[in-house]
Design a protein that fits this description.
alpha+beta, 6-stranded mixed β-sheet, Alpha-Beta Plaits, elongated, Beta-Lactamase, 21 helices, 6-stranded antiparallel β-sheet, 4 domains
Amino acid sequence: MKDTLTHRQLKSLVHVSNVINSNLDIDTIFDSIMNETISVVEAAGGGSIWIFDKKQNRLTAKSAKGLFYPNIFREIKLVSGESMTGMAFAEKKCLVFWNEAEIKQALSTLTPSNKDFLEWSIPSNFHFTSVISSPILQKGKCIGVITLDSFEQSLQFKQEDIHLLEAICHQAAIALEKSSLYYEKEKMVQKLSYSIEIHRNLANLVVNGEGIQSIMNYIHKTIGQHLFFIDEMGELRASACHSSLSLKMTEYIKQHSKQFILTLEHSHSVSDITLNEETYQFIVFSLGSKLKSLGGLLILSKQKMSEVDIAALEHACTVISLKLVKEQAVFETQQRLQGEFVTKLFSGKIDEALIQKAKNLNFDPNRNYVAILINFENKLDGQNFFDDHVLRNLLHMANMTLLGRVFQGIAVRVEKQIVVLQSFHSGVSSSKTVAEMKELARNLHHGMENKYAEINVTIGIGRMKQGLTFVHESFVEATKCIKFLKNYRFDHRVLSYTDLGVQRFILQNSTEDLIDFIQEVLGPLIEYEQSRKGELLSTLIVYLEQNQNRKKTAEFLHIHSNTLSYRLKRIEEILLTDLTDHQKLFNLHIAINIYQYIKDKGISQKNKC
């Protein structure tokens, strides 16, 4: 190269090299290359430097100097082989277009839009007289092109100009590579600094005792995007979103979140989704490890997230995972301690040590208490749906529904049951409070069975007791409710002990004793019904439900009053009883009430024996 350059050109090349290598800013380098190249090539009236954009698959002008309107000129996007610049790029060698005819032929390859931009960027009284386009090569790969333009017939490019431009392109390649390496290093430093700052701020939140929601709020404020924390069961546990996020979009995230997390193969995934006819970038980060997933952090972004933001979020996920592990460990310890306390409390063996433990758990021995028992059973025999994840999620649902408002208390797992102890001021209304508890329990039951259709859920609620000394009685009552729901026919799966009437009589006697009582009072009528398939038993049930009002009974059964009179007379004959005798009516009421709950317990078989 030195042999082909004059002494003047060598000095110029050294100067150009010093200038373009004295700065690492990429835009400054582009402008320096053009300014210095035009200044040392006498025939150059203008010029441009082009870099290949892989994403656009086009050559784009990074700097344009001379007689152009550069802002318009930079709108030109060239494909490989298009115009003089594209041809040099395609052939990877310096091309010279010595006259207007050759230039016109090369410009004919321009697309209409690029041709318009070129005409708008150059004054109409100027014409290309000659052009040089030289490729910028890095390791044999063309990364761009420098093009010099002459607009005067008297100034023609010389062979030595070609050599000089090739040498400048070689220096430009070195400068651009150095700048690229510097840029990558700066980006890495920026990425690391940004990540460290976020990591440090998040760690401070954790050290100061802030919860997951505070962490989510900080990340949301930092990156300005919608965030969702989904646990390992697919439950939305925390979110931080702009008010513009619709309920429909939130529901979509909740419904599909578990699928997103389960299909995650690496630390994170990036995809595009369309919601409400708008496209979002959707990023899912895993929390925990492959062996023990803690869920995922989901990001919904209107614009493409940068690598720096993604790296920072990966650091954030590490902090969140550590926070979750810590919370889980604390929760499991609390569950163990509270479980031991509740088990001993409900045994009824109250001593000073237990009272002190209650105080340590912030339970006032003199407040009012209600015990609630939530029981779970598989609907399908031989299949077990009760892994730790499911039970933990059921416990979370119980906490959120029964203890998530103004109520005080605890909810603990005891094998395949959840025991809830609720505390109230001594002045509250017992009946009103239990009614509120029952309504919340119904909502909880509905939510649990909707989420886990394979599980039977029953909830028993004891009566309110004054002081911890008697709270075991409320637990015993809740247990009796569960026993009744499990063993006898009952339409509802949530039962309060205060709702039990004659059912308490059922619970206090064996099934054998109950069947004997029904047999004594209703046996002949039941046997008569089974042999003749009549309607006498159902008529008696309605008659008693209507408080022995014949008119209402006939209307309810849609029969004539004479038909009702005949049926009642036959009932008296079969049972050898008098339906006007209050004592006998009382026995009939009790027997029918019990019969409706235990009629599947073998009464018909006993009658046949």
